[in-house]
Amino acid sequence: MLTRWNDVSKMFEELEQFRQQINRVFEEADYPRWAQQTNMLSSRAWPLLNMYDEGTKLLLDAEVPGLSEEEIQLSLNQNVLSITAERKVDAPKDYAIHRQERAAFKFARSISLPCQVDTDKVSAQVKDGLLTVTMEKSREAQPRRIEIEAS
Questions:
Q1: Is the bond preceding residue 47 a cis peptide, omega within 30 degrees?
Q2: Of the four, 7, 28, 66, 138, which is 20 to 30 A from 89 by CA?
Q3: 106-115 per-position pLDDT tens digit
Q4: What does CATH list as the number for 45-141?
């Protein structure tokens, strides 16, 4: 096919649109169907979380809707907090499934902490679909005030 010089920019635009369409196909294949419908994995990292530094401790909030404390496992190893969970959706004994929109799933996510924490002073709780992990900083990592002496 012969292309005139004026049509080259149009050809590149069409190629870019095609590339974007192909990327969307592969992105949709990477996520489970329930995540596409609820947009839960749109950032490619799940669960979505926030981490706060409160001076002497770190707070981590992670969205874990529909998961109980028995389904979530936390571990802390060399300044990396790992969150794993698995939700199984099974029909009660002697029942048949007629409709199943809540899918079973597993996930694992590891977060590098910005400082050392005291592993003996880490606590976690789940309430209303929010996992809150409180991690007290190690003594060396806590901020401290330094007095200035007069000369």
A1: yes
A2: 28
A3: 889 999 999 9
A4: 2.60.40.790
